[in-house]
Amino acid sequence: MNTVQEEIAATAARMVVEDGLEYGPAKRRAVKQLGLTARAQLPNNDQVEDAVREYLELFCADTQPAELAALRELAVVWMARMAAFRPHLGGSVWRGTATALSDIYLQLFCDDSKSAEISLIDHDVRYEVSTVRGFQGGDVDVLSVLCTCPGFAQRVLVHLMIYDLDDLRGALKPDSQGRSQRGDLSALRNLIKGVE
Fold it and tell me: How far, in whole angstroms, is CA 110 from its chain's centroid?
């Protein structure tokens, strides 16, 4: 990684931790803040994640582990609640870089794309619907629920991303460094217990 990419990654990491930005917007904002041209070579997400880990270690070591633990416990609750839809946790809560400003991303793998939404309606859960680009590049529906998280002053967004059941095979492929990008409830419980 060159010096410019390192600067962008470090600046983006600060924005991810302090402002709760996602990696893409944080990188773009870092480029502007550093006064670089739009043609500047951006760091990849792995490089930003490494910078986020460094930032957390330096500036948030006293608070971040408890915040991550609370978010993972809330994810367990939602994964158990949505168990019929084969939930997998992804994002910063799975990767261990989440803070109190992070959202929880659960990927549901459904036989019927409307069944998860019907389940929320049946349980009187309020949610917002949006569409985002999924991990395979296509658009996926997202059901976002605002939840109370024990120990947090603010509420937390839980995003339920609706995938077809067939997408589950591709979801389990490791990233370029051999790490899993998401895990099911059993894998999350092992993470919480410290079992790899």
Answer: 20
Alpha-carbon span 91 to 119, nearest angstrom = 24
Angstrom distance (rounded) from CA 60 to CA 148? 22
Length of the chain: 196
User: In the predicted model, what is the mean pLDDT of the chain?
Assistant: 92
Q: Could you tell me the residue ranges of all domains in the chain?
A: 3-59, 64-193
d(CA 162, CA 141) in angstroms, rounded, equals 6
**24, 44 Cβ separation under 8 angstroms:** no
pTM for this model (two decimals): 0.92
Q: Return the H-helix or E-strand segment holding 157.
A: strand 156-164
Does 39 or 174 have the greater pLDDT score?
A: 39
Query: Contact 87/185 with Cβ under 8 angstroms?
Result: yes
Instruction: Say if domain 64-193 classifies as CATH 3.10.620.
Output: no
The mean per-residue pLDDT over the stretch 26-43 comes to 93
